[in-house]
UniProtKB/TrEMBL annotation:
InterPro entries, A to Z: Cyclic_Pdiesterase
Superkingdom of the organism of origin: Archaea
Protein name, UniProt field: 2'-5' RNA ligase
SUPFAM superfamilies: LigT-like
């Protein structure tokens, strides 16, 4: 079955901080099969029989955003029912409404989960550190991260990514206000441009 996911890939210093902690968890608790690429999930994983409509709705919702979404990275949290340990994400109102608009547009024909349909003010944004842990490992990891220094880097998402079976299908660049193909999204030139912008934000040159 084809599986889709819409997310924001972490970039720049915040990606490095989250990756460093994830690697420490891997080494300390031997989590070979339970780590994920640092990202903020906006919808999914889900399936659909209408990829053409999915692409059209994703493009329409993304291009309708007139203000670059923002978020801040904070401490740590857990989902006890699924044994997930994550970094907390505090979104601005633009990001909240963007995520909710996606869920409302896709729900009629995509197999969204209950948490994807949560209201804008109730959805818990997060970046997963470890998941699918057995009970003992989960308890050990959750206590370990509570003692770690919080990730406090203020960050602006550059792109929203639509993935098909874990591969980039396309990405929307909020700065260029255009959709990128997979090749464009993965190009070194585009990545360098994004990193330069992130550095400018980190230096306080752009709000």
């Amino acid at each position: 079955m084809t599986r889709y996911l819409i997310d924001i890939r972490l970039m720049g210093p915040v990606k490095q901080q989250v990756s460093d902690l994830s690697n420490r968890l891997k080494e300390r608790f031997r989590l070979e099969n339970y780590l994920v690429v640092p990202h903020i999930t906006l919808a999914g994983p889900f399936s659909t029989d209408n990829e053409e409509r999915l692409l059209a709705d994703f493009t329409r919702i993304c291009s309708g955003i007139r203000k670059i979404p923002k978020y801040e990275v904070g401490g740590y949290g857990v989902f006890d029912d699924t044994r997930v340990v994550y970094v907390t994400i505090t979104p601005d109102e633009t990001l909240k409404q963007f995520r909710y608009a996606l869920s409302q547009a896709l729900s009629p024909y995509c197999s969204l989960r209950d948490y994807d349909l949560e209201p804008a003010e109730e959805f818990r944004f997060h970046a997963t550190l470890a998941m699918k842990l057995d009970w003992l490992t989960y308890q050990r990891v959750r206590w370990y991260v509570k003692k770690q220094e919080a990730v406090t880097f203020r960050h602006h998402p550059i792109r929203a990514t639509l993935l098909r079976n874990s591969r980039i299908l396309c990405e929307y660049d909020f700065l260029q206000e255009r959709m990128l193909t997979r090749a464009q999204a993965l190009s070194k030139a585009t990545r360098k441009r994004d990193l330069d912008i992130l550095k400018a934000w980190a230096d306080g040159d752009r709000e």
